[in-house]
Hints:
single chain, alpha/beta, D-Maltodextrin-Binding Protein, domain 2, three-stranded antiparallel β-sheet, 14 helices
Amino acid sequence: MSAAGSTPVRLAIISEGVNAWPLYVAQGRKLFEREGVTVAVTLTGSSTHQLEQMRSGGYDIGFQQSDHVVRAVETGSDLCIVMAQGHAPELSLVVAAGIKTFADLRDRDIAVDGANTGYALLLRKLLAENGLPKTAYRFVEIGGSQERFDALKNGRAVASWLNPPFDRNLFAAGFGALGTTTQFFPTYPGSIAAARRSWAVQHADQLVAFIRAFRGACHWLRDPAHKAEAIALLPERLNISADLASRAFDAFVNKPLPVIDAAGLQQVIDVYWEAEGLQRPKGAPAKYMDLSYQQRAGL
């Protein structure tokens, strides 16, 4: 056990989902405690709110998308990526029953988390490539996966990116899909953990202990012998069937550990620059990322 200190690490996550499975494992198996670190988790429900709080010091570590960090740094924050948190999720572009093509989204409301963050930027790019400039539809900032699921179900919006099990539950209710992120953006990186550089320097032992516990949970989750125990952790968190949980576990086992590297982050930088129409030179990946803490964790 490390001497990481007793002050809780304040962790922010935007939404529940299979992608947070290693966190559930680390909590359920008390891996954080074994590393001598206490973690207080807050479900924020909004990437915009979470990013604001991360910038102001309301949270210490946040699970989010890389472009959030790029945006924050380019507007004066000292946030940086400290760890690869999850694989790029296979989000479905779920649509109401009457939507059959991208053209059907013209003049319609599309539910997003934050209009200028995360996969909303990729969705703008995708819509533009399919003949819909940003003036041809409306992004409605709804919140996390549960909130967007509700928005589609009650008719407030006709389309949104959604992860399992939310997308599957809507498919069962008669909704359709125009495709998935894996089909449209096969090499785009997954979610990351971010922290303020100033906090990371002052709390390096806590951060390394946190990373070691989380990455240890990833290793544990990739062992087929742990399937039943791992699946048992999900029902209290997610509305997910046993069959879907089983398939999600098999998919996790067959993937390498999540990674974030300069090449992957460069894609994020490129999309951000394009979406914002920036003319100044692009920042190098190192401007937004410090993986030395992950390297110190040894996992």
